[in-house]
Amino acid sequence: MPTFIETQFPIARLSAEAYKERKAGASQTLTGLGKWWGRKPLILVRASILGMLMPASNDAKKDREIFLKILTMDDDGTWQRCKGEIPAAAWREAATPEVQEEFFGARGLKQGLSDEDKEALFAQIWDALSPEQQQALDAQRMRPIPDRAEFDALPYAERLVHCERPENVAGPTPATWADINAHLGTTATCLSELIDQLGQRTFGHTPRVGDSFCGGGSIPFEAARIGCEAFGSDLNPVAGLLTWASLNLLGSGSDVQAEVARVQQQVFAAADQQITDWGIEHNDRGERAEAFLYCVEVKPEGCDYYIPLAPSWVVAEKYNIVTRWTRVGNAERLTPEVLAVSDVEFKQYKDKKGATVVDSRVVDPFDPNRSWSVEALRGTDGLRRWTNDDVVPRPDDVFQERLYCIRWAKTVTRNGKPKLERRYAAPDAADMAREAQVLTLLRERFADWQREGFIPSKAIPKGGDKTEEPIRTRGWTHWHHLFTPRQLLVHGVLLNKANFGLGHKELFAASALGIASCSNWNSKLCGWTPQLARSGGIGAFAQSFYNQAINPLFNWGVRPISGVRDFFAFKGKSGSESCGNNISVVSDARDLANACDLWITDPPYADAVNYHELGDFFLAWYDKQLTNAFPNWTPDARAELAVRGDGEDFRRSMVEIYKNLARHMPDNGLQMVMFTHQDPAVWADLGMILWAAGLKATAAWTISTETEAVGIKKGNYVQGTVCLVLRKRMQNEPGFLDEVYPLVEDEVKRQIASMQTLDEGGEPNFNDADYQLAAYAAALKVLTQYGNLDGKDVEHEVFSVRGKGEKSDFQAVIERALGIACDTLIPRGLENAWRDLSLVERYYLRSLDIESRGERRKGMYEELARGFGVTNIKPLLKSDKTNGTRVASASALAASVLAAVSADGAGATSQISTSVGRGRVAAAGPHPFAASPLRHLLFAVRETAVNDNNPEPGRQYLRDTFGQGYWGRREGFVNLLEWLAALGNAQGMGEWVADSDAARMLAGRLRNDHA
């Protein structure tokens, strides 16, 4: 019997829920445990498990209704979740004086805070409150839309703005459970009971859910939380610890969480007192440091002073604070002056005035015409490699490091109220004495702390894609080189006081993950962002892994111990009450022997994150203590076993892994493989891997799991996750290509038709990417039913070596599926004209169609071109920006991409030039669009537009171009012109307004044209 997820999946609503969860920032359930890359939204995991357990009935509409009710994603459920918002004034009243001063004004929240910043701020305030205070604050919520009818009328995504996430509510009401049980034949009163009953019915026991690439732990955690027995495994011990903590800290219940939090608070208080006693963060003015700013400096050949390096010397945007450098006499070291400047001068600093690193060149601050290549400064032999004993540069090293600014703060009383005052200053002699004291204190403890594992001692692996960067660019060879003496001292004190929980697993996990979070937010990789909104423009720290790399910076910020409090101290959070045999292990997926009914995996693939390299950054802080708490775990990422790349070794490893998972699941079990690629070659590769592993695809769905790309992530990033559902292939019947192609065509059309039927009016479930991915999945569904194809052994096909551009039969079938999908998806209003259009004409019109619906990602237009077999799309685009792609309108095309044709319209073409943007690109031959009737029709529209909407020149152009053939094409032209005439009405299609009017006029003239 098929399951719900094999027949349908409410991806529009799930995408909206996943987006809301992602946008929650710091208030997401698992992010507080520590940094990991690619965690899947918990709501997606919950829905996937339920969808794999819930049987499909003969009433698809009722199935969908019940599924949404269970997840509180139906209309009643979202209204139940509409708890409203706590007013800003209530948040202000609950906040500490320091938070009030920094984030709130007399009229509420200060300007400039993004929604994500607000979420993070409110989460910070909430976590600092006692349960009684939280309850009092929660009671002040005000439902913003008190009228149910008005709420239901909102699009689903807009409703969610006012709703709690499903994980934060109790679940369906008793009345709703009655409806659910009546349809499913169950007796559940909560989600865990339902999950258990569905599992008992299908497998004879509570369902067991496993993930062999558990990463940050989303899948095992959510499985345990909703009542499954969860199994999580990963080769990387950092991932293993994160997963263990999700199950055993967040899933341990409030008593254990409270005890861990209490001990962690004691540890932090003791460490803070030690730092205070040393006097390394306080000055004689009663102030305590909030931030230390450091930079690299270098003395190039021919320069008799060291040049401090930074791409900008802006310190705090809110106060116009900058750093200005001067030279006193013939001193080798320049002197920093930290001061507030006028608005005019500050704007110059924001425009990089005084920047000493520009385009990978060191620039003399006193002579901008003099510069040196950073690469050349490293020398032909490279930099000196630091040794383990190095914690600061040696005097003869190329790159030195120095402190250039400190932000001081103290609380004063003004008008009877506490007020936090901040001051930015260059370090004075006393500050430099404190710096020297820090170094002395660290050196006194360095050897002992490395031996005990309180500070890192591991070397950075050589030759890694990411780990080679700090070695090459700074000479750093050990992980502790990525931290200043002050950072090593602060982190070491914390672990020394915690002593890693003395074997207590929960306390060890809290300490280890706490110090890992500190390292992410307090290293030499943490940039200083003077304009960051969540700090009100006073300056704030970026995290070490603001991207998936290890990039040494020229200037960075260092936190005092107070700045790492929120990262180190464990704060209890509503998680799962452990309800079964939940296991987390560190193991190679090829060696697993644990049986699971459902395997849900998100495997590394193609351009995957280098987890084995990046994870070592964290592991170095607790590797020596890990085996004390987990004797069976290997405290090493075992990079040699990591599954990565896309070559034969990778494919062989993946086949072994998925064969092993298939062996360790029942015959009626299911697997879900999540991944995020739209390349047919990647689909073909993955399809063959799963095929060779003895699995067959039964469904595929695409969920939007990524928030919009910002900052360094801007670009053509994949925004959706494909959820591929698989079962064991119980028979190995042979397949033949001549039979497969028509079956694929039928399956693609059936899949698209079913998706179009499921689309909700005014709230579509699917976009073009979803339909393309559905086509790939449909091809896989057909192909993976067979044991071989045209007699070719599956594993031989997986591992065979192919020449450049050579495609497997498997890939050819998948690409054909995409072509079928493109042919099937006809823009509304062009059904009658479609069959007479060439592929390139169809491509142009489909591109206009998706543009009119707001699609701007270049990758979508490239994928579309692949489906229609168009190899050069540039001449058809007005803009090919990564996230701003626009199709050229009739007027924008002008006379470009236009070839001469014979009088009968047969299409005799000559060599032409094509225009792209403002330049012209010579073409070796005519573009296939050049001689197409559609191209000439567009030129006729342009002729109409430039002649004040007089259609006569356009009509005459068509008559002259096509001769007698004009009359046979006239009706089709009218159909196309009427479709083009509607484009100008679409949102965001302002460039088509004039051409659409012209198309409307020309259509009327052609309709009434007579011989």
TrEMBL record:
Superkingdom as given in the UniProt entry: Bacteria
Organism, by scientific name, is Comamonas piscis
Entry's InterPro entries?
Answer: Antiphage_assoc (IPR049953), DUF1156 (IPR009537), SAM-dependent_MTases_sf (IPR029063)
**Where does the DUF1156 domain lie?**
8-70
| Name under which the protein is recorded | DUF1156 domain-containing protein
Spell out the NCBIfam families in the cross-references: DUF1156_antiphage
